[in-house]
Amino acid sequence: MSDTKRVFNFNPGPAILPLEVLQQAQAEMLDFKGTGMSVMEISHRSKEFEGVIQTAEADLRELLGIPANYKVMFLQGGAHLQFAMIPMNLRASGSADYIVTGTWSKTAVKEAQKLGATRIAASTESEGFKGFPEKLDLDPKAAYLHFTSNETIHGVEYFSEPTPPAGVPLVCDASSDFISHPIDVSKYALIYGGAQKNAGPSGVTIVIARDDMIARTPANLPVMLDYKIMAESGSLHNTPPCFAIYIVGLVFQWAKKQGGLTAIEKTNRAKADLVYKAIDESGGFYRGHAKPEARSRMNIPFRLPSEELEETFTKEAKKNDLIGLKGHRSVGGMRASLYNAMTVDGAQALVNFMKEFQKKNG
Ligand SMILES: *Cc1c(COP(=O)(O)O)cnc(C)c1O
What we know:
- This protein has helices spanning about 20-30, 45-65, 80-90, 105-115, 210-215, 225-230, 240-255, 260-280, 305-320, 345-360, and strands at about 10, 70-75, 95-100, 115-125, 145-150, 150, 155, 170-175, 190-195, 205-210, 285-290, 300-305, 320-325, 335.
- A seven-stranded mixed sheet has the order 2-10-9-8-5-3-4.
- The chain folds into two domains: about 20-255, Type I PLP-dependent aspartate aminotransferase-like (Major domain) (Aspartate Aminotransferase, domain 2); about 260-360, Aspartate Aminotransferase, domain 1, CATH 3.90.1150.10.
- Helix 2 (about 45-65) crosses helix 7 (about 240-255) and helix 3 packs across helix 4.
- Strand 3 (about 95-100), helix 4 and strand 4 form a beta-alpha-beta unit.
- The chain is α/β, with parallel strands linked by helices.
- The structure holds pyridoxal-5'-phosphate.
- Pyridoxal-5'-phosphate binds near residues 148, 176 and 197.
């Protein structure tokens, strides 16, 4: 293992995983817990897999402090399927409100619109998705209020939840800042996130839903779209993404070993501060996308003085084993994703490279 090449991985998703998790998966690959089989080769109804999924859920409950009146589901279809499942299960014949702060919340709206009444409570699109909306136009009768806690492409993160009108459930796409800091779950009615940013490999989406949300599920939904069936079966109505759930479980154990979400948040803050400081002290050579008060700890999009320099930056960074820094085409430039598994050393390596690059090209 010691001479295996590992790079500094700033990919936006699928993304970096903790080395310890990969090593444990490697060690258990051929013989999972004395079964003589890998976890991919055993029944999802075996007691070994039951242990995997139940431990993953218990660890997540502990990490996030999930109250007893919430269900945890491990579903397929990515965050994209949740864009459809949420309105299908929660909206009935009512209308739902959405706050649009970037590409992902905009995508969620588009899916919801196909299926029924959808209102945009606020949008920052005309300002280029750089921060939070100043005012929300909220429907006091909305079936729910949806927001995206971290916009992965625009690098805009909410540091406290928007407040819905009394009685309106708050629904959150937390795909890219899932388990990256403590939250008060009781403020939410439903939280979802694709695992492949912060919590594991692609293929599993974690949905945390309050019991009264699950009770809203209308009759006659296709089973794979039905929260009630998925929750009541413990995500085992059909064959779940067993391997992805196993890795997510290892990530949860790793997160607990780091000292839980308070400790993880502290490290995430430190990593993001390093990079934002380098941007702010570059005299305008590097320009961040988001407004300072909305700067994401997870994804840092930034521009250089020209597209040529941005291309050179990407190439030279790669030569220095700094991978995945090219920004999304809609924003352009660079993007550094600093998910939980990125080390402070990795963030520092990026900062050192940024300074060197500016010296040579500034
Ligand atoms: C990546 C991402 C998505 C899309 O996730 P899929 O699992 O690919 O559907 C949705 N929302 C946010 C915030 C994301 O970062």
